[in-house]
Amino acid sequence: MYASREAGALGAKITGAGGGGCMYALAPGRQSEVATAIKIAGGMPMITKISREGLRIEDVTQ
Fold this sequence. Notes:
Number of domains: 1
Largest sheet: 2 strands, antiparallel
Structural class: alpha+beta
Number of helices: 2
Radius of gyration: 14 Å
Oligomer: single chain
Number of strands: 2
Helix content: 10-25%
């Protein structure tokens, strides 16, 4: 969390059962920098986007 904030995230939150193992950071416009900081700190970053589309199922076996 500290690494993401220092890299420019507006905020960060620990989430998940038991309050550990996962976190998210809000970093509009600084996603790459924050992801790099998380990786350097030992985390595994995953950049996501909020979508208006909602859930969809795709067949990726073909």
